[in-house]
Amino acid sequence: MAVMGMAAVAAWVPCRSWGWAAVSFGPHRGLSAFLARMPQRAPRWLPACRQKASFSLLNRPDLPNLAYKRLKGKSPGIIFIPGYLSNMNGTKALAIEEFCKSLGHAYIRFDYSGIGNSDGNLEESTVGKWRKDVLSIIDDLAEGPQILVGSSLGGWLMLHAAVARPEKVMALIGVATAADGLVTQFNHLSVEQKKEVEMKGVWSMPSKYHEEGVYNVQYSFIKEAEHHCLLHSPIPVDCPIRLLHGMKDDVVPWHTSMQVADRVLSTDVDVILRKHSDHRMKEKADIQLLVYTIDDLIDKLSVN
Ligand SMILES: *[C@@H]1O[C@H](CO)[C@@H](O)[C@H](O)[C@H]1NC(C)=O
């Protein structure tokens, strides 16, 4: 896209609002109060409602500008780190925004370089570049202590961010955390399949969550990603960590979250498995668990 500087780009879009979240969460927290406020029915999507929507661009010398949306508010702030090829407007990203709004906490969601409204080419994207994107968001946009919520590949990057910015990252929530993902999946291919991918330079990875039925992953992307693998040794992260994972996840097996729990130095680590959830973890009960987990960590950090 064109160079826009620190621009606010406005557009009219249908507003998808978690109506119940906005009205349900008051200033008092705690499990029983939370459950008492839980609505009986599913959130209403209000297709008729229209709102003025916008995003901003973070200028970075020598690096692509990043599209983001920021809510100002109380500490700790929350940052949502999206999954592979996902943008800032996914179900989880928007639900967390409603929740943060209702609590009055700061919140940031963003697009990786090469994705959505951020600058940069997707073909040139690497795990290393996206890792830098996350660090830019933490360094240049986020104020004070932060809780990172990473979805899938975002869960891998949140671990990197916690290693790199221990003074700012206070807690982590991984949703279907794909630590070392894609690399692990690639390594599970047969020797012949790997050779073929190496020769073609691209891996057509089957995916039911992508319109075309496959993700075309560059071989060079996999090779670069190998440098960022974490699970082979202890992970120097010492903050509270919550790892949510669906046992019906056929993209990233839930054992990955167990491995993360095992490798991190933190002792305050919970792995929460949902038997019937798949990789997306975006059903009502999944979202409720996610916002509950955020709420609980905010409480915990406020007490300490
Ligand atoms: C995300 O939503 C905003 C409105 O909130 C819109 O301006 C932007 O284009 C959307 N981004 C993507 C990648 O769809």
From TrEMBL:
GO BP, sorted A to Z: xenobiotic metabolic process
Reactions this protein catalyses: S-hexadecanoyl-L-cysteinyl-[protein] + H2O = L-cysteinyl-[protein] + hexadecanoate + H(+); mycophenolic acid O-acyl-beta-D-glucuronide + H2O = mycophenolate + D-glucuronate + H(+)
Main enzyme class: hydrolase
Keyword GTP-binding: no
Transmembrane regions: none
Major localization listed first in the record, in broad terms: mitochondrion
Keywords: Hydrolase, Mitochondrion, Transit peptide
Residues annotated as domain AB hydrolase-1: 78-180
SUPFAM superfamilies registered for this protein in UniProt: alpha/beta-Hydrolases (SSF53474)
Cellular compartments annotated: Mitochondrion
EC annotation from Swiss-Prot or TrEMBL: 3.1.1.93, 3.1.2.22
A Gene Ontology molecular function term of the record: mycophenolic acid acyl-glucuronide esterase activity
InterPro entries named in the record: AB_hydrolase_1, AB_hydrolase_fold, ABHD10_acyl-thioesterase
Pfam families: Abhydrolase_1
GO cellular component annotations of the record: cytosol; mitochondrion
Classification via Gene3D superfamilies: alpha/beta hydrolase (3.40.50.1820)
Role played: Acts as an acyl-protein thioesterase that hydrolyzes fatty acids from acylated residues in proteins. Regulates the mitochondrial S-depalmitoylation of the nucleophilic active site residue of peroxiredoxin-5/PRDX5, a key antioxidant protein, therefore modulating mitochondrial antioxidant ability. Also catalyzes the deglucuronidation of mycophenolic acid acyl-glucuronide, an active metabolite of the immunosuppressant drug mycophenolate.
Entry's family note: Belongs to the AB hydrolase superfamily.
The protein's name: Palmitoyl-protein thioesterase ABHD10, mitochondrial
Organism in which the protein naturally occurs: Microcebus murinus
Gene label: ABHD10
